[in-house]
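Task: fold both queries, return tokens.
Query 1:
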Amino acid sequence: MALSGAAMSAGSCGGGAGGEGGSGTGAGTGVGTGGPLPPAPVCNTTGMGSVTTQAPELFLALTDQGDEAWLGSPAVADLDGDGENEVIVPRDEVLVVWGADGQVKWRFKTNVGRIWSSPVVADFRGDQKLEVAIAARDTLFMLDADGNLLSGFPVTWEDEMRSLAAADVDGDG
């Protein structure tokens, strides 16, 4: 998996970081390097409906052995609260978490089969800490920010859970 400037630049037309055609420099932070951020997207098109854009720049390549991913999409969140995002990726029956430096921080193997869904990251327990939920075959797992299985999990339900979503359905925070 590779992260490029085009894929990692946040912002949108009409108010993204750096503004339209801005310098793209942040407040001393960059994507994993502490350097400048990529320029914000440009929304003004030419008369032909296109605009010249900056070529993508490879920031780092995330590598891991085997367990290829081809189903769930990655999630990005600051799991450990250190101010730097982690990249959370389902790969076959393993959830792999990379730090901003491209090093694997932890791996969790389900031992029940392929993780079909993308990981869902949220404060599920109301403790001001992020947890990660994943589904593999008929089993739902909830992990803490260090990849440890939380009490009450895993939970078995119907086979082939293919997606997960989270919301405060009852509005209790």
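Query 1 returned. Query 2:
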Amino acid sequence: MSRASGALRQLGAVPVPVTGPIAGLTPGLTPGLTPGLTPGLAHRHAIAPGLSSDPTLKVALERRTMDGQSGSAGSPAFAGQGVLIIGGAGGIGANVAERLVAAGARVMIAGRDEARLAAVSSRLGCEHAVCDATSFEQVDALFDQAIAKFGSLVGAANLAGSIMLKAAHQTSAADFRSVIDQNLTSAFAIVRSAGRVMRSSGGAVVLMSSTAGEVGLPNHEAIAAAKAGVSGLVRAAAATYAPAIRVNAVAPGLTRTPMAKPLVSSEVAEKASIAMHPLGRLGEAAEVAAAVVFLLDPANSWITGQTLAVDGGLSRVRPRMKM
């Protein structure tokens, strides 16, 4: 066994619990309706019961159509619009918030660490709120707070989560519940609240999946279950809330953030991790953040139900073998 493969095996045998924005794991079409076709009649069996007759649906579609036309004319799509970022104080989340603020959005970041949130919001000039994303009640209150502050939301992203690498037989019930809560329950809570308050105005929800949910990696059983669940949630929610709310996810590979730092704590582990990615390097927080903003952007309103891999090819491409 090589030193690199031995390092990965050792890494996989030890749990690495981390909280914060997900960083991934190691190993100008304008929306609208066809003229003469109404939301209640168009693809009636594809629209969830209760949405096809929703009187707010037409308002959401008309608003999104106007937003798309505005964006195509060159005005900033996010200018003056409210966006909520859960997990907004970490490496990826802060980068997402910074990009949105620069685009003119009115941003609220949320998470559990008041001090880190305050530091980021002070630097960027955005709002912040403390919230445990695993609590349905707290997430509901957070969305209500954002709506009260901004009037409406055009986007919400959940970047909260954790990493734990353990084989299934080494994973306790408490370990498993924690991984599911921090990664899947939080995602469901955000979709649930967004569905409640964003149906009338329309918008986009972006969740964080992972390469581990797309390809089999050793010692990733718990996180793979959680992240595969996120990707399934994306598809179902996209079907339920279309056409008012778009729902997508980003699935990163190993990305350089504070949360992922323990995974590449040694030179050998870092080299082994890099070798798994066909592009020959680890990802940067800015690259994942750019994908999140892309999916939130009202200008990209023809995309829903997708999990976008931003992983250096890890999930789809076999690395070149060195002979």
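Both queries returned. Flag for query 2: The longest strand covers residues 245-252.
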